[in-house]
Amino acid sequence: MSFASLGLSDALLRAVATTGYTTPTPVQLQAIPTVLQGRDLMVAAQTGTGKTGGFALPMLELLFPNGQPSGHVRKPRQVRALVLTPTRELAAQVHESITDYATELPLKSACVFGGVGPNPQVRAIAPGLDILVACPGRLLDLANQKLVDLSQVEILVLDEADRMLDMGFIHDVKKVIARLPGKRQNLLFSATFSKEITELANRLLNDPQRIEVTPPNTTVERIEQKAFRIQSGHKRALLAHLITQGAWEQVLVFTRTKHGANRLAEYLNKQGLTAAAIHGNKSQSARTKALKEFKAGTLRIMVATDIAARGLDIDQLPHVVNFELPNVSEDYVHRIGRTGRAGRSGEAVSLVSPDEEKLLKSIERMTRQQIETGDDLGFVAPTQNDLNNDRPERAERSDRPRGNQPSRKRNADSSKNGQQPGRAANGKRNGPKGPKPAKGPADQPRSNQPRRPQRAARPVISEPDDAVARERRLQAFGNRAVPDPEEKPARNNRRKGQEKPALFGG
């Protein structure tokens, strides 16, 4: 069958022909007629099976019947169709595909996601849109600020719904859905029909048409899969060897961690292989630039974490490498699904260290197939000296003469001998002498400082205790009451005019 038999307008057919597609994929054959009937849809299909065209083409046909405006009047900040995606890269590529299909249509669309300034996105939404492609977080922020109106959405698409669940976006998705009108068409696309996805579909969809193009958790048959058992310390050298000897022109490499992706890209560049890392810590501009160069062929190797496992849509990608196996077996299917797309063949290579054997067995049980061992193309494992040369900073530290390194023991011995660390034997501090600080008033000799005026000394009473002596004391103290030297003063804590009571009645 052809696209013309699916009920699409001539404007869409011409746009599809321009993109190079002539025959619809199995998922498109089943999804497009169902969407055009206005029914809710639930699709389980692997990546690379044409899911974007499966909902973008019929959605454009519903918004623009026969390629003409439907008479709908756009209102400020209102959206007619909403597409939610889990990652920025996937949102940008879905929007790009929609605009490619709508080259002959008066489409107003926009794409919003985090990581970039919101002002251009707000300006794009302001006049009203036919289609908005968005990541849930940024869309919810704009909706809370009343910068986008979702009350008139006619079609909702959840793309890669299972990935949204894995990444913890389901709460934001529910908040977005709560802002939508009750009467709308819902389309849900997922790689698998897990228990969580089925529960979400039961709450969201209304009597949906269920489509499963491939059995759950199986890999595309056109992808040739290979595994290489190797020590983890030799993986980088083997990868560079396979790329060089196999003349691989475009390679997507997956790692578990962001730092691992950075280190691997740096190593490959040192080997003369142009590489760039893409992950969540990279700015959106850097991620967009790397993806653009990779698609254009100017960047040979892209090293990515699983954030890009479903966000990259690259035609004719021949090689995917699992530098480290994923901890979740299902992610293996999503990773290698980047190759072998649209009916083309591809190769998926996995580098397996001894501690990853259990992960490999789990993947083989899930996919119900055994992954064969690949040809290493005459690879010779590097020696320990070669590995040290790959780490120049570490080698320099180990080769540094021990006499030039500060010794903690030497300082400890000096302290035992009565000498403080950092001081010479005469007690003076070691090191270059600098200018002495200016002396302040406190640093001047005491003889140069003005003396405080002294109080007049009280006369010393040494006379015996008789009436004459008492009279002399009174005259000396200005007729003030002076206690008798032999008389003990009253306690300070005694109440005025009261004697302190005895504690034990005595």
Account of the 3D structure:
It is a single chain. The chain has 506 residues and is an alpha/beta fold. It is built from 18 helices and 14 strands. It has helices at residues 10-19, 26-36, 51-63, 88-101, 119-125, 136-144, 161-166, 170-178, 195-204, 235-245, 258-270, 284-296, 329-336, 357-367, 384-389, 392-399, 408-416, 467-476; strands at 41-44, 79-84, 109-112, 129-134, 155-158, 185-190, 209-212, 223-229, 251-254, 275-278, 301-304, 319-322, 346-352, 372-373. The strands form 2 sheets. A 7-stranded parallel sheet has the order 3-4-2-5-6-1-7, with helices on both faces. The longest helix has 14 residues, at 88-101.
Helix content range: 25-40%
Query: What portion of the residues fall into strands of 2 or more residues?
Result: 5-15%
Global mean pLDDT = 80
Query: What is the CA-CA span between the terminal residues?
Result: 119 Å
CATH topology of the largest domain: Rossmann fold
Shape: globular
Number of strands: 14
CATH class of the largest domain: Alpha Beta
CATH 4th-level superfamily of the largest domain:
P-loop containing nucleotide triphosphate hydrolases
Secondary structure category: alpha/beta
Name the CATH architecture of the largest domain. 3-Layer(aba) Sandwich
Q: Tell me the domain tally.
A: 2
Major beta-sheet overview: 7 strands, parallel
**What is the tally of helical segments?**
18
Which parts are unreliable, with pLDDT below 50 for 5 consecutive residues or more?
392-418, 459-465, 486-490, 492-496, 499-506
